Amino acid sequence: MQYRRTFRASLFGSFGIPALFLTAMGLGLGGYVDRSADAVLQGVSYLQFLAPGLLASSVMQTGSFEATFPILGGLQWNKIFHAMVATPLRARDVAIGNILWIALRLTLVGSIFALVIVAFGASRSPLIVLAVPVAVLTGLAFATPIMAFTATQRTPDRFAALFRFGTTPLFLFSGTFFPIESLPSFLQPVAWLSPLWHGVAVCRALMLGTIGNEPVLAVIHIGILAAIATVGAVLAVRTIDGRLVKG
Amino acid sequence: MTALRITPMFAFGSRRALRMVERNLLVYKHQWLGLLSGFFEPFFYLLSIGFGLGRLVGDVAGPGGQTIPYALFVAPALLAASAMNGAVVESTFNFFFKLNYDKTFASILTTPMSPADISLGELAWALMRGAIYTVGFLGVMVVFGLVRSPLILLTVPGALLIGFAFATVGMAATSFMRTWQDFDLIQLVILPLFLFSGTFFPIDAMPEGVRLLIQLTPLYHGVDLLRTLSVGVVGPDTLVHVAYLTVMGLLGLAVVSRRLDKLLLK
Amino acid sequence: MDDAAPLILARHLTKRFGAFTAVDGVDFEVAPGEAFGFLGPNGAGKTSTMRMIGCTSPISDGELTILGMDPRRQGADIRARLGVVPQHDTLDNELTVRENLIIYGRYFGLPRAECQRRADELLEFVQLSDRGKDLVEPLSGGMKRRLTIARSLINEPDVMLLDEPTTGLDPQARHLVWDRLYRLKQRGVTLVLTTHYMDEAEQLCDRLVVMDKAKIVAEGSPRQLIERYSTKEVAEFRFPAGVQETLDGQFDGLGDRIERLPDRVLAYADDGEAVVIAARDRGLHPETVLVRRSTLEDVFLRLTGRSLIE
Ligand SMILES: Nc1ncnc2c1ncn2[C@@H]1O[C@H](COP(=O)(O)OP(=O)(O)O)[C@@H](O)[C@H]1O
Ligand SMILES: [Mg+2]
């Protein structure tokens, strides 16, 4: 409960947090980057480089969060999901309903973030409109497998470790803040394992207007994300079903 | 005058507060992995922001005008920010939750332990845990060659001071909170502090007015304190930082000591 | 302290939560060595009263003296001599069974070695010695309750406050708890307990007060209360569905008093058999008939017009 409140999208949270991050990291720190790293970013300002990364990451973080405490709350604490399956709703309806609800939340979070980005002039291409659904897909690629995991838990004890060793490192090393080419070369292939990296790559290509350069790669990225989200959704439906039927 | 009635920490609570530390040590005997994992977050940030992003940034102006690598610039700031975050989370959300909802703490209140004992004990534990993380982080800095001066050892008490200042003010703020929604305000304060206190880039780049404003806020003093200590360039500024944080912590304590009991026993 | 002086003395004790009054000016006293009970339905104000005695809830009005001390100023000193078993278990789930006892003793400022010695002794007393190294969570409800009782004894309290000690336990677990409480009483520990089970009150309490809607409605030993407010025996009549409503007036004059409950009719009399025979003579044909002794349940029904457990 405590966590949910703090993350709840207040007006400040929805518009303010993106604006603060873009100002501090994009403009403030970006000033220093632009002075020295032109060669790496190839004429793109750091603000423009960072914006798509933050868009995908923040949707990803919302998705991860929504798949933990609120879901466990429904299953374990207020048993609201159990009450639902006592009605004609089936367990899989409950699971799918939750996934759709999260998708809706992510669309809202992503759209607001995109609006702020446009206000900062941080997108080069109108294709940012397409970056929002890609970010949502990225968020779902995290939310659905995590939801399946949540359905196997009785306490929130393991969530801290999940965030600490899962989402936080992915947030930091998936090309959000710097191109993965800056990582030691042996680490670069590892980025392929990060769903966030795929999402960031496509969002960035869309917002910089370079999507046309490597369309096949973009399709592969999206295919991987869709595959993860689908497998996750199937697992989530199964585990929630098992949990609600067993009680 | 409030300032004259400041009760020293050990007189406000009592030695019983140490029992809370004892309890936490027992708990962490079973959950040492959780304790250990808390150390990784600043470490990941250092790797990503300090070294990954640092390659794009290059060198920046450090304390005393000398040019230093970005990783060395940002590492002490991450330390200061994590001292602030740890203290704020512990003294606001966790503190409110424990004393109002957590059954374990309700049961401790049926013993001679007072709310002040419990809160001070938990605070002491949070600071100790923070100190352990600080030492771990310093170890990482040594490994990555980010050490310029033996004064860096003073960042351990420095980080403790930051934790103390934010924790007492956090508790004082919590004593005015009515509902969970009120805690959103804390986010509203903490995030700008985290981003704009000279944490990730020197504040020299800011317009004059903004810069002066930032110099009035606490995390700026914490960040600059730890940065001057790590780089080994101490001066009158260092004393100002220490004084600022000390006064802040004592003011927080003065408010808390007056409000706690009334507030927490229903 | 003077032995005759009450251990707990409450005068016009009141607890308000905002505009709502949970305990409304009650008076009672508890003597040393006594087992004293608060009997009442859910919401009567028992827990609120216990928490004030336990010095974890400030009193709103009236006076309260515990062990000769004032809870407003000497809360910690009073708590040092109480053993509290709260209504809902508040065990430390992050610790083992034995650690729960040891750390609790530490909160009272006992030396570590002494805590360990008492912990082992108390685990023996509540028959949990073989579970000492286990975490609390997998224990059954009855085991947790016994552990909570053991925990409340770690400081060798003068007074134990037990809030619904056996609610939610199965009959076997209840009897085990009762047995332990009975032994404590024999050792001279003063017991203050709340319950909504009349059998528990009858088993354990020397004296009790009946609470309803924030007030005390009667006071005495279980036997006195029954004598005062009920007859020696009760005849219970059950009728087939729908029949009872048609029997208006037909019970009048059977026994000293008649209570009509939704599912049965109770006739109070000192000779229950005689009432049953008289009913048969009037041509009443109940499905089942039961003659039993009066209990505190009947006292409560008489005083409030309602059952203890709805
Ligand atoms: N902290 C509280 N705030 C508001 N109302 C309360 C609080 N605690 C108890 N009450 C109310 O006081 C009344 C008496 O409660 P309680 O003392 O728990 O009764 P009992 O223990 O006899 O069931 C109930 O109506 C309950 O809702
Ligand atoms: Mg109660």
Name the structural class of chain B: mainly alpha
> Ranges of chain B with pLDDT <50 over ≥5 residues?
1-11
Number of DSSP-assigned strands of chain B: 2
Largest interface: A-B, 38 and 36 residues
CATH architecture of the largest domain in chain C: 3-Layer(aba) Sandwich
- What is the number of beta strands of chain C? 13
CA(first)-CA(last) distance of chain B: 29 Å
Please describe the topology of this protein.
The complex is a heterotrimer of chains A (247), B (266) and C (310).
Chain A: H1 2-7, H2 11-36, H3 38-41, H4 46-66, H5 69-77, H6 80-85, H7 91-119, H8 128-150, H9 159-173, H10 195-208, H11 215-246
Helix pairs in contact in A: 2-4, 2-7, 4-7, 4-8, 4-10, 7-8, 7-11, 8-10, 8-11, 10-11
Chain B: H1 9-12, H2 18-30, H3 32-37, H4 40-57, E1 59-61, E2 67-69, H5 70-100, H6 103-108, H7 115-143, H8 155-174, H9 184-196, H10 208-215, H11 218-231, H12 236-264
Antiparallel strand pairs in B: 1-2
Chain C: E1 8-17, E2 20-30, E3 35-39, H1 46-53, E4 61-66, H2 71-79, E5 82-85, H3 97-107, H4 112-125, H5 141-152, E6 159-163, H6 171-186, E7 190-195, H7 198-204, E8 207-212, E9 215-220, H8 222-229, E10 233-238, E11 257-260, E12 265-269, H9 272-281, E13 288-293, H10 296-304
Parallel strand pairs in C: 3-7, 3-8, 5-6, 6-7
Antiparallel strand pairs in C: 1-2, 1-4, 8-9, 10-12, 10-13, 11-12
Helix pairs in contact in C: 3-4, 8-10
Bound molecules: adenosine-5'-diphosphate and magnesium ion (MG).
Magnesium ion (MG) binds at residues 46-47, 87, 163 of chain C.
Task: Kindly describe this structure.
The complex is a heterotrimer of chains A (247), B (266) and C (310). The two termini of chain A are 22 Å apart. The longest helix of chain A has 32 residues, at 215-246. Chain A has one domain. Chain A is elongated. In chain A, 75% of the residues lie in helices and 0% in strands. Chain A is mainly alpha-helical and 247 residues long. Chain B has twelve helices and two strands, in the order H-H-H-H-E-E-H-H-H-H-H-H-H-H. Chain B has helices at 9-12, 18-30, 32-37, 40-57, 70-100, 103-108, 115-143, 155-174, 184-196, 208-215, 218-231, 236-264, and strands at 59-61, 67-69. A two-stranded antiparallel sheet of chain B has the order 1-2. In chain B, a hairpin with a 5-residue loop joins strand 1 (59-61) and strand 2. In chain B, helix 2 (18-30) packs across helix 7, helix 5 (70-100) packs antiparallel against helix 7 and helix 8 (155-174) packs antiparallel against helix 11. The model of chain B is unreliable at 1-11 (pLDDT under 50). Chain C is α/β, with parallel strands linked by helices and 310 residues long. Chain C has two domains: 8-221, Rossmann fold; 231-293, 2-Layer Sandwich (Alpha-Beta Plaits), CATH 3.30.70. Chain C contains ten helices and 13 strands. Chain C has helices spanning 46-53, 71-79, 97-107, 112-125, 141-152, 171-186, 198-204, 222-229, 272-281, 296-304; strands at 8-17, 20-30, 35-39, 61-66, 82-85, 159-163, 190-195, 207-212, 215-220, 233-238, 257-260, 265-269, 288-293. A six-stranded mixed β-sheet of chain C has the order 5-6-7-3-8-9, sandwiched between helices. In chain C, helix 3 (97-107) crosses helix 4 (112-125) and helix 8 (222-229) packs across helix 10. The longest helix of chain C has 16 residues, at 171-186. Chain C is elongated. The chains are: A mainly alpha (247), B mainly alpha (266), C alpha/beta (310). Chains in contact: A-B, B-C. The A-B interface holds A 1-2, 5-6, 8, 10, 12-13, 16-17, 20-21, 23-25, 28-29, 31-33, 35-37, 40-41, 46, 160-161, 164-165, 168-169, 172-173, 177-178, 182-183 and B 33-34, 37-38, 40-41, 44-45, 47-49, 52-53, 55-58, 60, 93, 96-97, 180-181, 183-184, 186-188, 191-192, 195-196, 200-201, 205-206. The structure holds adenosine-5'-diphosphate (ADP) and magnesium ion. Residues 46-47, 87, 163 of chain C line the site of magnesium ion.
